[in-house]
Amino acid sequence: MRKVSVEVCCGLHCSLKGGQELLDLIESNPLFQGDQFDFIPVNCLQCCDDGALSPVVSINGENYMKITPERLVSTLRTFIN
Ligand code: FES
């Protein structure tokens, strides 16, 4: 089974605009505790337009801008077999 790569931006803009909430959610949600996902904190993904599009998460190389915790959960659910 190929792991889903989830890069969570920990750059300044994303951290200030909800990135920490995403990290907290990932740590606390049982959905993400298995080995299906590979969560990787990264620095600025260079696509946030100085925070206008923050927070950003990249899933298997595709960037998701202004992502909310709810949308992160629903998006990652689509990767669960
Ligand atoms: S600070 Fe997150 S993409 Fe720029």
According to CATH, the homologous superfamily is Glutaredoxin
Low-confidence stretches: none
Q: How many distinct beta strands?
A: 4
Q: Strand-and-helix sequence, N→C?
A: EHEEEH
The total of helices stands at: 2
Backbone structural class: alpha+beta
| Percent of residues in helices | 25-40%
- CATH names the topology as Glutaredoxin
Sheet with the most strands: spatial strand order: 2-1-3-4
Nearest-integer average pLDDT = 94
* Cα distance spanning the termini: 10 Å
What is this entry, summarized?
This protein has 2 helices and 4 strands. It is an alpha+beta fold and 81 residues long.
Give a description of the structure.
- The chain is of the alpha+beta class and 81 residues long.
- It has a single domain (4-72), classed as Glutaredoxin.
- The chain is built from two helices and four strands.
- The chain has helices spanning 12-28, 69-77, and strands at 4-9, 37-42, 57-59, 62-64.
- It has a four-stranded mixed β-sheet, with helices on one face.
- Strand 3 and strand 4 (62-64) form a beta hairpin.
- The model has no long low-confidence stretch (mean pLDDT 94).
- The structure holds FE2/S2 (inorganic) cluster.
- Residues 9, 11-14, 44-45, 47-48, 54, 56 line the site of FE2/S2 (inorganic) cluster (FES).
